[in-house]
Design brief:
Elements: H1 2-12, H2 36-55, H3 76-86, H4 89-111, H5 114-147, H6 158-174, H7 184-196, H8 201-211, H9 214-234, H10 251-267, H11 282-308, H12 313-320, H13 326-353, E1 359-361, E2 367-369, H14 374-396, H15 406-409, H16 411-437, H17 439-444
Antiparallel strand pairs: 1-2
Helix pairs in contact: 2-4, 2-13, 2-14, 2-16, 4-5, 4-10, 5-6, 5-7, 5-14, 9-10, 9-13, 11-12, 11-13, 12-13, 14-16
Length: 445
């Protein structure tokens, strides 16, 4: 009875990409223990993605459907914030996903249920991505173009607004060229997971052995830097590969992170295949890693500006995104080096200090595991955030940064923190309501 209860708890606190439908058939097989540190890390990374996207309308770097009229187009503070968290947050997602996928593939291979594993990947990853692309994204186009600060809905009759909305929705569908929105992560993870089932177990064991050699590990990271630099000659950071809505500039890191996470579960040691091992003082090391990354970003920007003979930071940052030049090579090196030191420090911090389930009490005095709703929060965060950001911008009533008092009161960084916090809370609440009240979504997510 205790064993069944433990299995039930493990299933409810599942990873959003884990195949929980595959059941054990060998009683003597010991299922890997649930890791609360990885669940909590997933919560943190999801919240960071939401705040990262919140920063873009207020002067940060990246692509977003909405830009605030109350703030300048570029904030150096937010650009540094976006740049630093870009070095590790999606790579961190793929590392954690690789860990859980490795467990799922091993179990499915042992039990002969690989077809069930693939079907589960389709249900949990591909199907939500397709539904998001054909239903949610056109709705967001209507919301932004029709009901944003400059939307057509404010200048036309209700029937006219309805007609424009229908036209915009149809146009979004007719211009379909591939996956839209943040669900590129789901599709890429599905590709990785399905590809992993064709990798023979002996090759994974050999890779684990080779990763213990420092020379091989160093060559692997150098190869990732070179691959990122070469790809950015044709696909600079920010340019997407339309069928997947993926930025190829960061693909080498995602492949490396997934692979390292996948093979790490073989030894159940998060740090076995990373450049930095566990630490007795992980939090100071994490702070040091972040500070060093920020300082290195400043040095990189300074060197790039001198190399280009410019005093404009925007010009230097544009050159760093790609091309066969020194700034682009510096950026590729800095991005992967930051990932190499920040991710192990982050993992160690969560293992040491945040290794208990994050539970919240509901109104009916029941406890819910916040990690259970991370995937749902990730899927709804774009629509939830856009709605709140446009609502706030409309109510601020400014037409230019010069006409805004909010810039002087909070600044771009303060605004990002305030609105980002609201977006995080709203996304989790919407995700919770959908999972708990829509049965077919609960089965999918």
């Amino acid at each position: 009875m205790a064993r069944k209860s433990a299995d039930f708890v493990n299933k409810k606190a599942h990873d959003p990409t884990e195949a929980s439908s595959v059941k054990a058939t060998k009683p003597n097989f010991r299922k890997p223990a649930r890791r609360a540190d990885l669940d909590n890390l997933r919560i943190f990374l999801t919240a960071l993605v939401i705040v990262h996207h919140t920063a873009i309308p207020y002067g940060g770097l990246g692509n977003w459907k909405f830009r605030s009229r109350c703030f300048p187009p570029l904030s150096i503070a937010l650009a540094v914030f976006n740049g630093v968290d870009q070095t590790f947050f999606m790579g961190g997602f793929f590392f954690v996903s690789g860990w859980f996928s490795g467990i799922g593939v091993e179990r499915a291979t042992r039990e002969g249920t690989l077809s069930t594993f693939v079907a589960n990947r389709f249900k949990r990853l591909v199907l939500p991505a397709v539904l998001y692309t054909v239903a949610v994204n056109p709705f967001l186009e209507v919301m932004v173009e029709g009901y944003g600060p400059d939307g057509f809905a404010w200048e036309s009759s209700p029937m006219g607004s309805l007609s424009f909305s229908a036209t915009t929705f149809r146009a979004s569908l007719s211009n379909f060229v591939g996956i839209r929105g943040p669900v590129w992560y789901c599709i890429l993870l599905a590709i990785f997971d399905v590809s992993a089932i064709f990798v023979p177990p002996w090759s994974m064991q050999r890779l684990v052995t080779m990763l213990r050699k420092h020379g091989f590990m160093l060559s692997l990271w150098i190869t990732t830097i070179i691959a990122s630099f070469v790809i950015r000659v044709s696909y600079p950071a920010g340019r997407v590969f339309r069928p997947l809505n993926l930025q190829p500039a960061y693909l080498p890191q995602y492949m490396l992170a997934y692979t390292l996470g996948f093979v790490s579960q073989e030894t159940q040691d998060l740090h076995a295949n990373l450049p930095l091992g566990a630490s007795k003082f992980p939090l100071p090391r994490l702070i040091c890693a972040l500070v060093c990354s920020i300082l290195a970003a400043g040095v990189m920007l300074y060197i790039s500006a001198i190399h280009l003979s410019t005093s404009d930071p925007a010009t230097a940052m544009q050159a760093m995104t790609g091309g066969f030049n020194l700034p682009a090579f510096l950026y590729a090196s800095w991005n992967e080096a930051s990932f190499a030191v920040i991710l192990p420090s982050l993992l160690a911090t969560f293992t040491t200090y945040l290794n208990k389930p994050f539970l919240l009490r509901t109104r009916n005095n029941q406890f819910v595991d916040v990690a259970r709703y991370s995937y749902a929060a990730f899927l709804v965060h774009e629509s939830t955030s856009l709605f709140l950001e446009m609502l706030i911008d409309i109510n601020m009533g400014c037409s230019t940064p010069e006409s805004s008092t909010v810039v002087d009161m909070l600044g771009p960084f303060g605004m990002t923190l305030c609105v980002g916090g609201l977006n995080v809370l709203a996304s989790w609440n919407v995700g919770f309501l959908l999972v708990e009240n829509v049965p077919w979504l609960r089965a999918m997510l």
